[in-house]
Prior knowledge:
233 residues; 5-stranded antiparallel beta sheet
Amino acid sequence: MVDAKPSDFVMFETGPFKEPDLISYLALVTSAIGEEAKTYGPVFTVRFIKNTSQYLTEKFGVDVPEDIKTIEQLGQYIVSIHEKHKEAYKAFMYAHFKTENEFLGQTGAGARVGAIGFYKDKDKKSIEERNVDIDALLTSYRQTMIALKVSTLDLGYKKNGDGSVNVLWPNCYFSDICRYTLEKGLLRRPDGRLQCTHSVAMIQFFKLTTGYEWDYTILEYNKPHCIVKAYMI
């Protein structure tokens, strides 16, 4: 249960995108997969390409060229079919979760590896003493996602008074692929909590910006909005 309705949230001005900019989104995912491949080796890329290709074939009936060997080439292929298959880019999200599960048997492991080096040593102060400006933090996050051209159309937040914040996504462009990924058993974290692509990115941004560790828990999922609680640990 959530102690706030969507109408209780402070809403940012509606953004310019209903969907992410294709080139910007693919570039960000390509970079993230490249970092994970440094940890797990070239086979991670091979598996990711295979899982992406299988999803594209299953969902859109396309025959992905067998000579694709890099994430960049895969991205170029998705761009080439974008006019006919507008949602083909979502294959990257599905394949990312599936590949992580294949490697470590638990969703989110790669996200934790990807966090290495993104934040300073954890401060020993209590959460109350850290004095993080939540309003400024969320504003900076929103502005950054818009600048990167991967923001959702709308975003809201509600401060909880204990250093945590509830974040509202009223109309996430990943909602359909999230449902599909959950149905496939690929959207659970090791402790059973749901995973969220936007929340992972937000938490990493919070870590980088504040220097503190953060985590998140999904409070409401696909109602059709999602509400996530982000908090320092």
